Amino acid sequence: MSSTNRSAAREKHKSDYYITPKYAIRDFLREFLKSEHINENSYILDPCAGGDVKHGMSYPDVLKEPEFNFTEIATIDVREDSLACLKKSYLDYDVNENDGQPDLIITNPPFNESMDIIKKSLKDVKEFGFVVMLQRLNFLGGVTEKKKFWDEVGLPKYIFVHRKRMSFTDDGKTDSIEYAHYVWLKNDLIKRDFSMVKII
Questions:
Q1: What is the 3-class SS of 145-171, one letter each residue?
Q2: What's 19's domain CATH number?
Q3: How are the residues of the chain apportioned to helix, strand and coil, as percentages rounded to the nearest 5?
Q4: Which residue has the higher pLDDT, 151 or 160?
Q5: How far is residue 72's CA from residue 166's CA, in Å, rounded to a whole number?
Q6: Are 18 and 4 in contact (CB under 8 A)?
Q7: 194 exposed, middle or buried (CB, 10 Å; 0-12, 13-18, 19+)?
Q8: How many whole angstroms from its chain centre is CA 52?
């Protein structure tokens, strides 16, 4: 599956679901939780949770596994066939007014909305809370629009680069793109001019 096709998945393939592989989420969480402590009772939000009749919601499912044992996970997704509790665009939803501020926001956002979702997440998450987004490794690059984005949000605290190329479909096929989990710490952004990069 090409990265171009995947980037338009939410708009062009409403009935399809591109699954974030659970092994990649586990690999990320194991490494991330070596560096940062997240209380098991923390309020976590997945704003693009996915799931359908054939597949669970990848991030919530892994977060609830005994190894991690997080229990308070809210889910939002724009797709009507999603398993998320709330069927709505995260970009149109006032999280703080309705549910309070999450301690952690984590998801694999649709590529064409990712910058807007990251910026909103950094506003919605609690002070010194974390925002975690799965993105292509080349998300760091770009021209004018991306430069404005990095100037506004600051560099992430961590970038966890996945060595293994991911498959987002049931057939196991991968594209030619490497992926990373980008981790921002709210209020640790303005002066950050480097990120800790880990290969997992």
A1: HHHHHHHHHCCCCEEEECCCCCECCCC
A2: 3.40.50.150
A3: 30, 20, 50
A4: 160
A5: 27
A6: no
A7: exposed
A8: 18
Per the listing, tokens 């009772």 go with 41
Number of domains forming the structure of the chain? 1
d(CA 86, CA 78): 8
How far out from the chain centre does Cα 158 lie? 13
Are 96 and 124 within 8 A, CB to CB? yes
Asked if 174 contacts 135 with a C-beta cutoff of 8 angstroms, the reply is: no
pLDDT digits (tens, 9 = 90+) for 140-155: 887 778 888 988 888 8
Q: How far is CA 161 from the centre of its chain?
A: 14
Rounded Cα distance, 74 and 139, in Å: 26
Which residue range forms the structural domain that includes residue 36? Answer: 3-199
